[in-house]
Each structure stands twice: as C-alpha cells, then as structure tokens.
Amino acid sequence: MEERARSCLLRSKATLEQDIKASYLMDHMVSDGVLTNDEEAMVLNKVNRREQAAALLEVLLRKDNRAYISLYNALIRESYGDLANLLHSDLPLLSPEGEKSFADGVSPSVQAILSDGGVPQRPVVFVSRPALLNLIRQKLYQLQKTPGWVTVFGMAGSGKSVMAAEAVRDHALIKECFPDGIHWLSVGQCERADLLVRMQSLCFRLEQGQSSEASHRPPCSVEEAKERLRFLILRRFPRSLLILDDVWDSSALRSFDIQCRVLLTTRNRGLTDSVSGTRSEVPVENGLDEDKALEILALYVNGKPQKLPDQARSIVTECKGSPLVVSLIGALLREFPDRWSYYLRLLQRKQFKRIRKSSSYDYEALDQAMDASLQVLTPEHQNLYRDLSIMQKDIKVPAMVLSVLWGLELEEVEDVLQEFVNKSLLFRDCNQRPYLYYLHDLQLDFLTEQNRDQIAELHKKMVRQYQQFYNESPPRSGDKECSYWYHFLPYHMAKAGLSKELYSLMFSLDWVKEKAQIMGSAHLINDYVEYGEILDKENSEVRLQFQEFLSLNGHQLEQRPFPDVVQLALSQPACSEVYRQALMQAQRRASRGQLYLDWVNKNNRDSLSRLVMHPHQGSVYYACFSKDGSKIASCGASKTLRVFKTTSGEKLLELQAHDEEVLCCAFSPDDRQIATCSSDRKVKLWNVERGILIKVFGEEHEEQINHCQFTNTGRRVLLATCSNDKFTNTKLWNPNKLTSQNTMFGHMEPVNHCCFSPNDAYLATSSSDGTLKLFEVSSANEWKSIDVNSFFPESDDEVKAIVKCSTWSADGSQIICAARNAVFVFDVKTSDMLLEMKTSRQSTIQYCHACPNSSLLAVALSHYTVELWNFETSKKKAECNGHLSWVHCVQFSPDGSLLLSSSDDQTIRLWETDRVHTTSAVALKRDTDVLFSLGDVTIVAADSRNRLQVQTASTGAILFESEELPSRIRCTCISRNAAFVSLGTEDGSVQVFEVPSGKTVKLSGHTRTVHHCQFTDDGETLITSSEDATVRVWKWRTGECLLLEGHKEPVRKFHLINSSSSPHLFSWSFDGTVKVWDLNRGQMQQDLECHKGAVLSCDVSSDGWLFATTSADRTAKVWSSASWEMTFLLKGHKDCVRSCRFSWDNKRLATGDDNGEIRLWSTLDGALLKICSRDTKDSMDSFHGGWVTDLHFSPDDAVLVSTGGYVKWWSVETGESLQTFSTMGANLKKIHVSPDFNTFLTVDSIGILYILKKVEGGGW
Length: 1260
Hints:
Elements: H1 3-11, H2 13-19, H3 22-32, H4 37-44, H5 49-61, H6 65-77, H7 81-88, H8 96-103, H9 108-116, H10 130-141, E1 148-153, H11 160-167, H12 171-177, E2 182-188, H13 192-207, H14 222-236, E3 241-247, H15 250-254, E4 261-266, E5 278-283, H16 290-300, H17 311-318, H18 323-335, H19 340-348, H20 366-374, H21 379-386, E6 397-398, H22 399-406, H23 410-422, E7 427-429, E8 436-438, H24 441-450, H25 455-469, H26 480-496, H27 499-506, H28 509-519, H29 521-530, H30 532-557, H31 565-569, H32 577-590, E9 597-599, E10 611-613, E11 620-625, E12 631-636, E13 640-645, E14 651-656, E15 662-667, E16 673-678, E17 683-687, E18 692-696, E19 705-710, E20 719-723, E21 730-733, E22 740-743, E23 751-756, E24 762-767, E25 771-776, E26 782-787, E27 803-808, E28 814-819, E29 822-827, E30 833-838, E31 845-850, E32 856-861, E33 866-870, E34 875-880, E35 887-892, E36 898-903, E37 908-912, E38 924-933, E39 936-943, E40 948-952, E41 958-961, E42 969-974, E43 980-985, E44 990-994, E45 1000-1003, E46 1010-1015, E47 1021-1026, E48 1031-1035, ...
C-alpha cells in the first residue's frame, strides 16, 4: 500500500474503529477479492464491534492499494459518507499489475470513474451474459441525448445489480453518453429517514473536489436533498448516469425524479409509472442456462465444468440456475470442496437458512431475501400470495384457476397478479392467451417451506373452492383452465388428505371420460399409479380395475372423434366396478333412446396385454426399454423418437428425429442418451433429459441404417450400427467422436441386425447373405461365421434365407437367430446347432429377443402374433394376440417381468411375462354360421385346431366337436332345425354332421377350396360353391349331386331364393358375371355380364324385384329381376365395393367399400342419400378399420349395422354413427343379426367370439 494511503488509514484509525460495523463492510471486500473467507472469520471472532473494526484495519494495513480502494467503496455503499470523506483525498493509484487484476481488463480511466462513483467491482467469480449486457447498453445509449429511465427488473437473486454494474464497464458508453461520470446508490428497503441518509451520502460524493463555496451542510429533508441533487446533476454533472440499485417503492423513486439519466434495478417492474420522462425496460431472466451455471461453480472450485462431479448438474437443476444461489453454493464449495452432496441435500430439503451468504448480498441467508419481497405486499395480498404455495414446479396456471381459488372476479384476480408480476414475485407467460402465471422454483420452495404447517389446509381450500364453483357440472371448455383441473385436482385432493373425495373422483367413470377426452389416457393411468397407495386403502381391486381398463383401451381414447367411454367400459369383466357403472349409465341412456351393446360372453382377460400405447402416426418399427426399465423409447415411420413412462405410457419426450423413417433407437448404458438411426443414412445421439441433439455422426454408411445398439455395460461405451451397404455395413462408434472407430468386414449383403454379447466381448450380426457372424469387439476381426442358409435345403443360391436378427442367452453361451419361419439356437464355442424351433409356415419371423434372466424367447411374427418359446426345451409356452398388423419388434424388460411388442398397427403393447395365457386356449375362426331360435343362439364355427364346433350362446356349452381335419375348414353352416351342420375345406371336400351324435356324411366332387355352403329351409339339400368355378346342389343324405357349371373363375358365394313356385339361386364370381339358376331343373336361367372387375357381393330385395351387385371396379349396380336389365349404375366409391344390402322396405341400398366408406342410395331413382363415414381415417388408414365386409338393416330400416375393423351402428336417416364396438382383433368377415335386431354375433381375427346384446331401456 502506498505510504500516503497507509498514513491516512493510520490517522483515521481511531475514528473508523469507533463508527464502522466491520461485518457490513467485509461483504463488499470479500466480493472484491480483497479479503479471504478465513480473514473474514478471524475478524468476526472478535468479541465486540470495536475489536472487529480494529482487527479489520490491521488486516487491511498489511495489504496493497486495492484494499484501501475497496474499503473506500464499501464505506460509500454502506452510507458512511463522512468516513469515506476522510479517505478520499489520499486514494492511491493502482500499479500496472494491480490495474490488470483489479480492473479485469477494464481501462484504468474507466475504472477510476466507476470507483469514484461507487460502482461495485465485479464479483470474485463472474460469468458474462452477453445478450443481456448488450440489451442494457442498447437502452442506455438511448439516454445519450435526453434524460430518462432504464429499468432492469427481475426476481431476487437474478443478477440485476451485477449486470447493471457490468453494463457501465464500457469505455465507449461512458465516453459517448456519460462523460460526467457514473454515480451508484444502493437504495434498498428503507424508511424515509434512511432514504435521506442515502441521499446525503450521494450529495456528499458529488460535492467532493468542489470549491469550498460549493460545500453545504447536509440536506435536512428528502425534499431538500432532492433539490440539491437536481442542482448538482443539472449544473455540474449534466451528462452523468445515476444508478439506483434495488429500489422497492415508488415514493423512494420519486425522490430522484430530477430530470436526469437513471438506470435502476428493482423487483417491481411498474415503479417508473410514477415518474416523468422516457422509460424503457430490460427483464432479467430468472436463471442462467446450465452451461453458464456450471462455469460459475467451476470457477469457484478452480476446476473445469466438464470435470465437475455429477452432483453439480443436480445443484444447477435444483436452483434453476439462479445466479444468487449458484454463487452462494459456489462460495461455500470453495471453502468445503467435498460438500457437493451435502449442499445438494440442503437444496433438495429446502433448508435455505443453512445456505448462508458468503458474498456481498444484502441478506444473511436466502430465505431472508425471499421474505423481504413479501413484506412490501398488503396483508390481504400476502394471504393471497401464500395460497400460491400449492402450485407445482414448472406448472403455469391460468388466472381463472386462481379466480376459483380466491373466490374473486377474474378481472380482480388479474389486477392482483399484475401487482405480483410487477414486483417480480410471479412470472407471466405472455406467449399464450389467456396469460399463464408461474413461480420460480426458489420462490415456490420458499413459500412451501414458510407455510409447511398450512399446506394441507391450503390444498383443501383449493378442492373446496373447486367443488363449490363446479357443483353442477365439471369444466368442459377444454381450455387451459379446464386442463388444469383435470390434471391437478387429484394432486390437490391427495395433498389435502381428502382420501374419500379422491376415491369418489377416481373411481368414477364420468371422471375417466371427461379427463381422457381432455388430457388423454396416459395422464389417467399415471394418476392411478401415483396415488395407488392412497386408493388401495379404500379398494385395491377397484383401483386395478380402472387402471386395467385404461391400460387396455388407452390407445382408443386417443382416437378422434372421441369414443363412447361407456360402450368401451361395457367390455370389462362383469365383476368389474367399471362395468357396473357403465351398465347403469347405459341403461339410463338407453331409456332415452341411445344405443349400447353389452358383450354378454366376456371371458377371462388374462391373455390381454397390460398396456396399449399409440405413440406414432405410422408403423412403429422399434421400441426398447431403458436400462432401468422405467422408460420406453420408440421410433418408426413418423420420423419421430418418443420416450414415455413404462408404468403409464405418459409421454416424456417427443422429437422430430430424422428426415426419413427412424428404423431403430437405443438407450446408452447410463440411460442419459439415446441413439437413433434412419433410412436417411444418419446416426444421431440425443440427450434424454433435455431432449436436445448432442451430435450427428459422420455419414459413413451409404445405405439405410437398419439397427443400432450400445454396449451393455458402461466400462467402455461403444455404439454398433449396421446397414444395407454392400461391404462397409457394420461399424463401431465411440460416442465422443464423430467418426467410426472400426468397420467390421465379412458380410457381402445388407446386415439387418447387430447385438453385443452380455459381456460386450463379441458383436453378433445377422445378414441377408444367409449368415450369422460373430466379431471380436476389441479387434473388429471376424471370430465365427454360421451358415444359417444351409439349414434350409429348399433354398437356392440366388434366393438365400435372410437372417433377420439374433439374440444372446443370458449367460452368453448360446446365440439365437431367426430366419424365415424358424429360430435356431447355436452353441457359441462350437457353432453347433443345439435346437430348431419352427412356427407356422404361413408366417415369417420379424424379430426375436431372449429374456435376460430365463430361457424364454419372444418371437414377433408377420401374422400379427407374438409367441413365447422355451429355447431349452423347444416348446411354445404362450401366444400374445392383439396386434392388428405385422409385429416388427419384441423386447423383454431388463428384469424379464415385462415384454413389449411394436407393430404396423401403430401401437406398442406391454405384456406381463408370467400372465400371458398358454396355447391350450382354443380360438374360433371367422368362418361361422348362426341359428337364432327360441331365445337362444346356436353357433357353428371352425376352431384354431381345425375342428368344427357347435355351441350355445347362453351357456357356452359345446354341443358337438368334430375330430381335427387334415385340410383347413373354409366355410360352415347349420340347418334351420339345428340338427345338422356342414363344412367345406381347402381340398374341396364337404362333410355333413348330425348334432349331437356326430354321425358324418362325406361328399366328394369339388376339386378346389369350398368357399360357401348353405342348407335349404327343409335341411335336406346342401348347396356349396367353390374355387373350381362350380356350384353343387347336394341331396346330402343320398349323395346325389346337381352340378351347376358356367362360371370361369372362383365362385365365392351365392344367394338362395326360396319361392313357392321354384327355388332360384344367384351365384357370382370373379369373372364379373352373375348367373341365375333354377334349382329344380338345374338350368341356368340368366347369364349376366355385370362388371368388368370381379363381382364381390350380391343382394336381392325382399320382394324379389331387384338385385344389386358390387365389384372391384369401384361401382355398384341395381338390376331388375323382371327384365334382367340394369336399373341404376352407382358411382362414387373410391375403392373396391365389397358389400351391399337392401333395406327391408326395398327403398334403400347400402354399399360398403375397402376404404371403409358406406353409402346409402335410393332404389327409386339411384340418388345418393347419405355417406356414412368418420371425419378422418383411423389407425388402419380406413374409415372403418378396414374393408366394410357386411351390412344389415334393422327391421324398421332406421338403423344400419356394419363390420370392418370393428362393428358400427348408423342412423339411416342422418348417416351419423350411433355406436361403435371395438373388438380385440380386427378384420371382421361378417356379423350375424337376430330377427329382432337385439343380438349380434361376430368373430375377430384373433378368434374371439362376441355375442352382443342391446342394452334394454329404450326402443329404436
């Protein structure tokens, strides 16, 4: 320290010791880097204030010029103006070395101006925020020619003061705009007397260096001080900048309304409304981004951001990047560098009082800084603000919700919220209308801690206010306010301890319907998981019933138009509370004329998946579990990557990942990253938590990339990719580098799949060249090659068996691969085949995956099924049915308890491994016939074992069951007296069985598949049609046969007309013709060339005067049975017209096509009456879930029922849908309708029989 400065300090020592409070001054000096924390602690250990002051001066006398200047500035900032005056004349100049360190790059002249003006020096640790600085400076430049106000506003601890001080550390700004200096005054929360002291201090500073005549006694009042400042600024410092730091109220600000240039920092945005002059604002963001915050922590501990411990990111996350809290924690860590976990726990536990200050901040601890903001509110508004304790982090709330909570008019609430926003106590999202409001996490944490004992009561208040406001009906507007209640009402009930209200709410089908329509099913499922412990105290069975209902039907609740939840719930088991409520509602609504169907033969549901999700608009090519099993990632044709919760399907992340289809995705070993690969030949790496792209690897593949997978352990993380390239089709990547680490050569055709062994020593690759290869990961050399193609003797050299994928056994001793319809298990050491498992010849294996902790193998098949096999015993253990299209992927969870499957039907299904039912269950085939008689229904159908079954609908009792037949059953029928049933098979044979004796008559004649069979009314004659282009009329008891020949292509079906004179038969064929036969004489009466394409269906009006045909040529035609001429040509369908039906009064014709569209026509003039269709296509790219295969009118012609991918009922008058019944499977072939139109029977693609009865309560 210069001798002159040292002498001054010694001369003034006694005065300083008597007056100063060392603890106040040291905060500033620690911030300046002049004092260390140890020195501060040593001073504070002295017993009284005078000894502390003496100790501080002793420390400073041993230091350099910077200590003297720092003490001077601290005296100014703490309003010791008279003491600062003692030191002013002997202020030293900094040495060149001191200038460099003290000014931190700022020129000495600028530093002198700032020092004279009392501008705080940079904090010990400082990280620039360029965008904010530039914005403040831009606003300050606007004050160059005219006085005015620049307001820098933000919440406590957001860095306002630091940024204001940094903004004026600019030589050009000072030279061009404020050559007369910068004057800093800390205002803070102060009474009028304290304000006067601060103004006196500023006057004193401005008068330093002036002639003695300019020296005055201190002003005696705020008004006098205001006038003194006006004089000094306007006369002597006209082009200076006055910086007012931490201004709280408008009355204090008005004391500086003296027509000068002012930069002020405040938490209250609206302060300048009370002063004159131009005004501009600069908002300070609530928090630093993660990189900036980590940089601050790194500077405090003298490290590098990338080398900080894992807790560093968590600390930044907990404090939301608040500059104040990051700095507080950083300063503490500088002294205790091993306390990362400790300070993280303090933040997580909201123990703010223990996060003590170690910097020049005005409050002893973080909680005091927060509390100071609240004290400026009126008591009434403090109580309203307290209610915000129940808000959730990162949740933005509309004003209408708070209007309900506070019981105030919306406009009144908006005024209160505006005050909170102006005081930086609340934040407003102006990007949405209506505005949304939210608290910074620190504010919310403080409120929660402060009102800990009242939290339950505050939540209870929220619930009671909601119940009072919505006592007549729940909110249905669908806006943000409505969404808030559906999202958070259960949360408030749970937090309030209102368990009874929570049971009543969540065990209500009405709540399920309303919330699902607005929020989707995943939110609901998550509620049952999150509040399961509370709900289970009331009734765990009911909770599981509601959760299962949503899990299995959630994908349908995502459809638009929104499905009828009551109808969906009627498919639940009869013992379910969901079903009970649905039936009661259905009965009430039926009494008002609405239509509901009860599935009366519901059976055990254990075979169904636990959760069904609809994550993408398009095929789902791949899905996988995270390593901890808590998340699932999926990708597909939609070009997106999606991550969601395993428990509920709730979406956590959705990214537009690639420009083309995303073919695969994979979690890294630590679950922090996901890799994706695509048809666009790119491999990308994503951050899971933040949803941002980390890197795009170099485009080294020249063809589409089929698969990617990380190593299983984190010891040495690598990513493997494989592609359709000819040679360079398998690569290994280091995630930290852009280029590949190794290329594995060996395959000469596309590689479809790759996977690491459990210990990551080997990589298995499956290729279209018919081989499975094992590569050493360390050297990238080929270790073994297995010629899988050689196990298919029928393969030729040109068409090899494509090896689709491979998977390792849990111990890595066996490698399993799939090709065509077979799975092979090989010993890794010897390459010997241990066993072979073959699935149906008609299906190909798309994917297989071995359970990580058992001998189970999951196999995905092209015929929409997932099978579970034991690969040690080669036995099939179970089938998982439910998908409506090809299954592309299967994967077990890490613990083996769950299995997921993804499909072309746009869904992912989650199965519980130990609950899927075994293959002993028998499914029915869709080739059925039904007899309605005496209030019961008799059903005849083929089953999955190729037997013919006859059963009753009322009891499900099997009346007759044939032996297994060698040729597949393709059609069945039953006689009117239920005494006989018949079947036709693929090899052309026909059999008639007596029920229940089983006495059999075999009829030979057809040479190819029999497509349709039907008894005449008396049951003595059987008619069959066949792929061999013939129709045969059998006197089946004697074997006598009448052959009807004439068609040139297969005859799929016929229509029998029983008239009093002679029975007639209409037959139609793929040859485009309809032929009319006289069955008595066996002669063809008419041969009509109806269409250029195949005739797909035909119907005859009830009076016999008209018949209709539909065709693959996209047209339908109406014909006269009298003239055999076409009456009307019906055009308009955009796809094959597959079905038709006349109304009972013969005035209408309904036609259905392969696009799912149904049209109603007038048979009087051929006019189009209505189009029955959805507004948009469904997941099967149809208006009806597939082809419209069957149509029936009700007896009064008011309702039409149709089948496609599901069953629908329509109003004939309006063409609007009356009801939809969604089956488990799809592709319904037909529906059987009782004469009274009250009972409906159909079988879906996975063999489930549906007997649907209209719920009683109202007429049609």
